[in-house]
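quick one
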Amino acid sequence: MTRPAEKNPHERKPLTRRGFMGAALGAVPAAALFGREASVQAPAQTQAAASARIKEYRTLGRTGYKVSDIAFGAGPLNNANVLSAAFERGMNYIDTAEHYENGNSERAIGQALKGRDRSKVFLTTKLNMVYDKRNDKAAIRDRFMKCLERLGTAYADCLMIHLCPLALVKHEPYHEAFRELKAEGKVRFSGLSSRGADYSLSGRIDDPVETVVMAAAEDGRFDVVLCTYNYLKGDAGDRMLKACAEKNMGVTLMKMNPALTNAQEAEMLVRLRERYKSQGKDLPEVLVKLAQVSADRTAATEVFLKKHGLGEPAQSGGAALRYCLNRPEVHCVCPSINSFEELDSFIAISGTKLETREAEMLADCRETLGSSTCRIGCGECQAACPNGVPVAAIMRYDYYFRTAKREKEAMTNYAALAGVDAASCADCPGPCEAACPHDVPIQGKLILAHNMLTLP
Ligand code: SF4
Ligand code: SF4
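structure w/ iron/sulfur cluster:
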């Protein structure tokens, strides 16, 4: 297929050139795997990647629908041509929401669907009922009908409660609205999404992802979930997937690749030490401790990279996606896509299998470097904080800033936490750290995040 030009003036420009996956790990630009940061491919690789097609389809639980293992996460979508190309290359699951790109994601999907056989695509949209609290039955119906209008379609395959807190799993007005809409042929399946504890412009949620998803499985009325899962998740993630499989639920994933950024952390600590010094002060004790931990882990990272033939931790990205797809309970992964480059990157993963040495590498990564990284969505430490600081949300903004290069979004979101941000962390005994089951030196990380995310 000839590619249409990418004309959309609002599309984000490439920010940096990042390394490719090592050939042994699959030709996937690390940056694309980590989110919105774009990268540049070598011509030969681009041509090969551009001709790649989806190679594997899986039955989406009890929906019975065969979906592409790599799905189209339309969170940032504003270019319908990219989605059209995805359809041509065999992608058939799209995840969107009423508010993505202020409704333009759904509009772009509507454009790309024009003239296509609607039955060949599984389309999921979502309503965020924490952010927009109009959630009685009439409002839910009204909001969903507006989704259909933007999508230019008579029905959605799945309607989800987006970022569902535990309290909304049994929100009867939603279930009643869904039953009516289903009877009217406007929607086929029900679902929910969860990325765990959250505190953002979307509202405050304290429930871990596993708690919400397992409650949904127990409730029995949800056919499909979109949830955070990755190789650092451990037992809680295993229990969550098992609960979904027992109810034959469709399982779609987001945030499949946690970032390991301790080298950046060490650099930031050096700069912070200089700043304190210029003010005639010593680095606070908690940061001295973090600097030591960080130095140890940086050394461990170097050993890890050498051992596995990697140039940087990000090069584990292809293996991280294959790890998720290697789970039989998982039906597709939904990376965010809005460029041909990202499309090429992710389609290249379709149908590839996790190799033994990749599984060993990820296990080693979890063992040696896992405590460097906050799991972000788990939030297990938050109840220990006397000041109500939303640890998981702040670590997510830290991830947006440092790894996904969405600096403005990260800082804007952080500014909205006024009153409960991490400003108080420097003068605290740090009970959150003792409460973290993953041994993450979270207090120092919060102080660093506060420095990084606060507008000067
Ligand atoms: S610091 Fe630990 S407990 Fe808190 S959100 Fe991160 S991983 Fe979870
Ligand atoms: S360091 Fe103290 S104030 Fe900061 S999140 Fe932890 S417990 Fe709360």
